[in-house]
Design brief:
Layout lengths: L14 E5 L1 H10 L4 E6 L12 H8 L3 E3 L1 H7 L7 E6 L11
Parallel strand pairs: 2-3
Antiparallel strand pairs: 1-4, 2-4
Helix pairs in contact: 1-2
Length: 98
């Protein structure tokens, strides 16, 4: 669980955001140890064909809450319903992976 107030992104923060379902799911699947928190907009409606974001969070052991205020502070588009917060990290580029 994070103990700070979300603010508009600044380069010098130790954390960053994923905006949207796809990048947040990618974070939870590929780098769950970097994920700090996931916020879900109250208007989020899980699609039948995809796994629910709450299930992805549970699988990764990451806190997931419904909170509209987080989106008002961070998201610049109105159609963002999932917001991930993660600790910035560096990773080497693997030549054998695209």
């Amino acid at each position: 669980m994070i103990d700070f107030k979300l603010r508009k992104y600044k380069k010098d923060f130790s954390y960053s955001y994923t905006l949207g379902m796809a990048p947040t799911v990618e974070l939870l699947q590929k780098k769950p140890e970097a994920a700090l928190h996931v916020f879900v907009h109250p208007k989020y409606n899980p699609q039948v064909a995809t796994k629910d974001i709450f299930a992805y969070c549970a699988d990764a052991g990451v806190a997931c809450v419904v909170d509209e205020k987080a989106f008002n502070r961070v998201a610049t588009k109105e159609n963002v319903f999932v917001l991930g917060v993660f600790e910035k990290f560096t990773a080497p580029i693997a030549a054998d992976k695209p």
